[in-house]
Structures are given as C-alpha cells and as structure tokens.
Amino acid sequence: MRTHFIHDRKEIDNILKQCRTCYVAMSLDDEPYVLPMNFALDGDRVILHSAQSGRMWETIIKNPKICINWTLGEELAWQDEQVGCSYRVRSKSVIVEGTAEIVNDLAEKNRIMKQFMTQYSELPFKFNEPAIRNVGILLVPIEKLSAKEFGAKAVNSWNK
C-alpha cells in the first residue's frame, strides 16, 4: 500500500465537502493547542466560527498563524494479515496553513455565515443581528495546501 499526493484541487475540495470537522492547530509561545471545529470554504479561504472569547480566540489574536487538518476515512487495510507493519488506515488527508483574519463587518459576517451553513445543509438560512454580532468569524486564506491518500493499493506499471 502506498501514500500518494493529491494535486487536483477539485478532488481536494471534494474531500473537504465530505468532512464535518476539521482540527485547528495553533500555538502561543511554546504551548501548542488543537481544537476540533466546524468549517466551510469560501473560495480559497477557510471559514471558522466560535465565541469571541476563550483560549482559542486569545491565542489567535496574539498569533494568527494556524494549521488546519481534515481526515476522511478510517478503513483498516493490510497487505499481509499476519504482518503488523503491513497494516494501514486507508484515508485521505488535507492540510492548510494560513493566517487567520478576524471579520468584524456585520454584513460580511452575515454573508459568511450563510456560506458557512452550505457545508452542512442546502437549506436557506437567516440570522438575526444579535447572533451575527456575537459570533466570532475567522477567515483563513490558504497560504499552503497539501493533500495525501494513505493506504492506496500499489499499481504495477505492467497493469496500467
């Protein structure tokens, strides 16, 4: 079984569309912190939302550099059932690195929250002003993007 890089952006976006949770890594001084979060895409930006307080928010304000991971699939696979090191989890993984930007404009927050909900539902949504005012919105422009498929079956050159 092999690990393959995924370069096709449409395939990467398809992986993300199937995920429900991402893991956001951040760091303040020498203290790393990882948090599971809901997300959506807005073109080449990742949308995250949270309360406007707490450890994550305080960390982002001081150090907006973050790394986000998505993993799709957890099927166990092996080449030889008796050989432990031949076991692998078949999955696809996407990693984004970027600098989080805090969105404060109410009209933009409303637009972004509607976009955010498209990750989870096709229904049209409305948000009242207090909800929009109180939600913390982070936009993360994609600075680095990588994706891999793990546990892929080997392809013999003579079978292509």
Annotation keywords:
alpha+beta; 6-stranded antiparallel beta sheet; 4 helices; 160 residues
Instruction: State the end-to-end CA separation.
Output: 17 Å
Q: Strand percentage, roughly?
A: over 45%
Average pLDDT score: 87
SSE series: EHEEEEHEEEHHEE
> How many domains make up the coordinates?
1
| Biggest pleated-sheet summary | 6 strands, antiparallel
CATH topology: Pnp Oxidase, Chain A
CATH class, named Mainly Beta
CATH superfamily, please? Electron Transport, Fmn-binding Protein, Chain A
* Residues in helices, as a percent range: 10-25%
CATH architecture: Roll
Structural class: alpha+beta
Largest beta sheet: what is the strand line-up? 1-10-7-6-2-3
Number of helices: 4
> Shape from CA axes?
globular
The strand count comes to: 10
Cα radius of gyration in angstroms: 19 Å
Residue stretches low in confidence (pLDDT < 50, at least 5 long) are 155-160
Describe the structure.
The protein is of the alpha+beta class and 160 residues long. It has a single domain, classed as Pnp Oxidase, Chain A (Roll), CATH 2.30.110.10. The protein is built from four helices and ten strands. The strands form two sheets. The chain has a six-stranded antiparallel beta sheet. It has a four-stranded antiparallel beta sheet with strand order 4-5-9-8. The longest helix is centred in the last third of the chain and has 12 residues, at 106-117. The radius of gyration is 19 Å and the shape is globular.
